[in-house]
Amino acid sequence: TYAPKLILLDISDINCIQDVAKEILNCYGCVDILINNASMKVKGAVQSISLQLDKKIMDANYFGPITLTKAILPTMISRRTGHIVVVNSIQGKIGIPFRAAYAASKHAAVGFFDCLRAEMEEFDISVSTVNPTFICSYHRQPAPGNWEASIWK
């Protein structure tokens, strides 16, 4: 048995994910199950959401999980075992008004992990996508002019 180790990671900061994955692998040698369960969302009309915020949502919900998965995947492949889980959203299957950036990032994740599932079959690595309906998330009230405060985490 391994003692638990807390490792903080901002999944939207793509540049630090490789180092965190390396730290995890150095500590434990391998990962048996990777659960990607971080997310950010924002509610607003397409024309009112900045491209900067669209990119931040895409980093957290798409590029973050795939970057972490790609960092952990080689050890799973070499061991020919493992399970990758992505907790996504029903909005990865259907779009609803005022959630364009979020839905787009979740659609992208569904596409990526569906393809990965097919590719990993030969290595006996399972890939699961969980798409729950609406859940209650932590939310901060936005300060005027502060778009980051309007993000749901």
UniProtKB/TrEMBL annotation:
Domain of life: Eukaryota
Keywords: NAD, NADP, Oxidoreductase, Signal
Lineage, opening ranks: Eukaryota, Metazoa, Chordata, Craniata, Vertebrata
Gene3D superfamilies assigned: NAD(P)-binding Rossmann-like Domain (3.40.50.720)
GO molecular function: oxidoreductase activity, acting on the CH-OH group of donors, NAD or NADP as acceptor
Record organism: Centropus bengalensis (lesser coucal)
Protein name: Dehydrogenase/reductase SDR family member 7C
Record's keyword annotation contains Metal-binding: no
InterPro entries with a match to the protein in the record: NAD(P)-bd_dom_sf, Sc_DH/Rdtase_CS, SDR_fam, SDR_family_member_7C
Similarity section: Belongs to the short-chain dehydrogenases/reductases (SDR) family.
PANTHER family: DEHYDROGENASE_REDUCTASE SDR FAMILY MEMBER 7C (PTHR44668:SF2), PTHR44668
Entry annotated with the keyword Secreted: no
PROSITE patterns documented for this protein: ADH_SHORT
